[in-house]
Amino acid sequence: MNSHLNPLEANQPTAVIAPVIKTLTEEEKNIGRSKEALRLALHEHAENLFLVEENLTYAELIKEVDGIVLDHIMPRVNHVQSHAANHLKINRTTLRKKLRQHGFLANSAEVTC
Predict the structure, then answer these.
(1) CB atoms within 10 A of CB 84
(2) CATH fold group of domain 57-113
(3) DSSP class of 54
(4) All structural domains of the chain with their residue ranges
């Protein structure tokens, strides 16, 4: 027996494995294409940032990406922080910290829930 074969492939009939294989829905295909497009755009953006600033740190790159995401999401949720936090799956306090870092909030006394 070839040691490189997957144990399922070697020991299970095709009929048992076949139901595991799933046909992607059109929505799943679109999500996959969107994720790939995002990955490519982020890659290109990171390359451009590294060309401009050779000593760019990971934290600085993530902060840049955070700003782009916030620029996109806040108008989509009518600037309602709780909706943005839910959409991004982050704590609202974390969102507020990021909003302050990126100049979306003028001061810590400003509250928009």
Answers:
(1) 25
(2) Arc Repressor Mutant, subunit A (1.10.10)
(3) T
(4) 1-55, 57-113
By the 8 A CB rule, do 17 and 8 touch?
yes
Q: What is the pTM of this model?
A: 0.60
- pLDDT (tens place) for every residue of the chain, 113 residues total: 454 554 445 554 444 444 555 676 887 777 788 888 888 888 888 888 877 887 888 888 889 889 989 999 999 999 999 999 999 999 999 999 999 999 998 765 444 55
39 token code pair = 């990955």
Instruction: Give burial (CB, 10 Å; 0-12/13-18/19+) of 85.
Output: buried
